[in-house]
Amino acid sequence: MGVGIRREPWIFTLSALGSVLFGALTVADAWVLGWSTDHVVLPAFRTGEADASMLLAVVALFLGVAILRAVGIVARRLGAGVMQYRMQAHYRRAVTRQYLRLPMEWHHRHPTGQLLSNANSDVEAAWMPIAPLPMAVGTVAMMAIAVVQMLLADVVMAAVGLLVFPAVIGANVVFQRLSSPLMTRAQQLRAELSEIAHESFDGAVVVKTLGREQEETDRFAATARELRDVQVRAGRIRAAFDPALSSLPNLGVLVVLAVGVSRVVSGATDPGDVVTVAYLLTVVSFPIRSIGWLLGEFPRSVVGYERVTRVLEATGAVEYGEARLPRDGGGAHLVVEDLGYTHPTTHPTTHPTTHPTGEAPAPGDALLGSVSFEVRPGATVALVGPTASGKTTLTALLTRLVDPDHGRVLLDDTDLRDLAPGELAGSVSLVGQTAFLFDDTVRGNVALGADVGDDEVWEALRTAQADGFVAALPHGLDSRLGERGTSLSGGQRQRISLARALVRRPRLLILDDATSAVDPEVEARILAALRGGSGGATLVVVAYRKATIGLADEVLHLDGGRIVDRGTHDELLRRSPAYAELVNAYEADHEHDRTEQDA
Description:
The chain is 63% helix and 10% strand. The relative contact order is 0.08. A six-stranded mixed β-sheet has the order 6-7-8-3-9-10, sandwiched between helices. The chain is an alpha/beta fold. The radius of gyration is 36 Å and the shape is elongated. The chain has helices at 2-7, 9-47, 52-101, 104-107, 112-126, 133-153, 155-161, 164-202, 204-209, 213-265, 271-312, 391-398, 423-427, 442-447, 454-463, 467-472, 490-502, 520-533, 546-550, 569-575, 577-598; strands at residues 334-342, 366-375, 380-384, 406-411, 414-415, 428-431, 508-512, 538-542, 554-559, 562-567. The two termini are 70 Å apart.
């Protein structure tokens, strides 16, 4: 709560003042009621006549109090709402910024559903008590004023009525202890539910093709039922707590009335004092309930705030320097020195997942060890190796998706870790095997926020051999591609992704098997266009096809996370049986697949 008050002090002050005004005027009602009883109601009973001027005075007092109290209500609710939604928006932005700062390896240690829950339901829960907070603050003032007025009216009746407070405090303590574990579990289940839903939707093709709709439905339903049961149990506790909290002041009023009647009969107090104290006790019941609402939100709020704070305090954010890269348009000079990387240990509370580099080794396994090579500006290097040889890990290091354990990557003689934010993205583009497209137009997917015109978009599409099918779409560049580009084939999605990288005119272009879904003839035209018309960009290509590998100036043969041989494609075919077996086996497998498809 202190964080929210310090961040929005003026709005909180406005809301709290409105609440204090509301509380003070609510207590003033009791004074008006008591004064009216003694000076208007009882004299009217004694004389049988009501003084018209006194009646007008009473009406004016009640009306003035009501108007001012309404002003306080508006200020309180407006300030509380603005403060709550501002804090939620601020923390959602903060969580999102932290997600972007943290390295990919951190993200893949945390399920997507949990990350979605942190940014949505956890943030919402964390700041839910902000809405009743100003009212609770104002009603504390109301309670203080009411207690003072009760003591001034009659000390004995006030002391009897104030016995309610210890009972209320005890009820709140019991409520907190019973509900906090349930709220913690409910927030965890919300994250699990988001994770299951995300996996089911993201893997819809797998689910449907394998006929696992019922199993996925049952998996979701089991967690949903557990969440329902936990919330029902929490609701039962809340259902018992709220009536108890409301009934305690009412019981206090009955006791005060009983004591007050006996004191009036004995002449120890006036009837107006009894009415005042009894009414003030009913007034005090409202602050007690409002504080109860605030306390009732605390268990879920504390859990949500702790989960959000764990994200905001997570370590491992990518650090940057201040170095800049030249923007001369030529190819970049790439040097890799003694590069090594080990798969991080999986956090014990998370499910093991595929590493962001695409490899899936056991935690602690070395993915790369002492890799060194150099690529001259404008040259093309092919990375060739069996599965889990470290190719994708190397591309992740070249684009600084992860940082190496030792060694360094130099771009134009500058360590990637010394570059200023945004510098690497302005000079290096990575196109992966899995093409991700947004539910946007072709233009939106290619430009993706870059300040480029349609001519540049079409040029990038031509280089990627995508201009033909884009021109055939119903609305050309304005055609929407659907979620993840579902309206396109795999090869077409890869070519759109390649055009997205090319339109930025990178000085280093890294293709991680980025044309695997493209016909060999189309792939050859793409690579020829890249070498001849990509502005002399340096190319690093993860490749399997002989035609692709043959276009490279140098081939690096990786195995076991190390470069076991290097040279031209023809040289490696002649002197390395392992290399020849690898590329020939790939060609044979794909020729067999094409034969079966033709048949």
